[in-house]
Amino acid sequence: MPGDLHTHTTYSDGSTPVAKLPFLARCAGMTHLAISDHDSIQSVRYAYAHPVQDGVHLIPATELTAYDYERAHRVHLLCYWPDDCPALEDFSRMMAERRYTAMMQSSKELEEICPQYSTQEALEFAKDSGTLYKAHIMRVLWQYGLADGLYNEVYRSLFGLKPVRGRILHTPRYEPVDTVLDLIKACRGVVVLAHPSVYHSMELARELIAAGRLDGVEIDHPRNTPEDKTELLRLAKENGLLITGGTDYHGIHTVTPRPVGAFATHDEQIARLNDLAKARKSTFKRTT
Q1: Which end of the chain is more exposed for a tag (fewer CB within 10 A), N or C?
Q2: Is the pLDDT of residue 288 over 90?
Q3: pTM of structure
Q4: What is the Cα–Cα distance from 4 to 8, expressed in whole angstroms?
């Protein structure tokens, strides 16, 4: 049976508490679920602590943020079955601190221009995440009728990059792609390039695949283009890569709401992913 291998909760910028997602996955006919919160060790630990919940098998996961400095754009790397290790914990803490610093600067500036907005209310939405996201700031504006949704025109005026830089945009510093890939390797995780169409990462995808640095590519994603899906499928078959899919579920924190399980990974690919993860753990044991 299939699994949704890309979802987010209140551990990062999603709107749904983590304990609810396995139930939603079961209702959608999923047998497996990866809760892959951004740069979060919390989602990894939750899955290890709850291997099966509501009849759904949880795959430990996190979506790590990197930056392609050559092409000047963000990159998301899905990391499955990583060890709960100091290296991952340190990275998660570092990114939480960087996000908090950047978003608090944005939040304080917004208080100066919008009297109805309160940083404290945004922090209430953020209490599970351990940091602050743009979604939490926008949620305050949205609930008072001061925004046309979460990621629409008001969001672009505040946080957009192009064609005009947003009024209160501040971004955390991201680590280079190679650094994050090295982290995933050190944690013995299985690495999948997330939604290459979203950040125009097809050139990077070709480069990383040729270098043998990816275990898989996410193809069945709501924002991948048909052209990119076709090429990704070809590259995956030619290079023996995993083919994954996921909804990128954020609850109501999205432009187009989609339920858990709307996009999924086939059961044979889940079996391959799990076998690869087990092999990496056993290889490490034999060599230590």
Answers
A1: C
A2: no
A3: 0.96
A4: 11
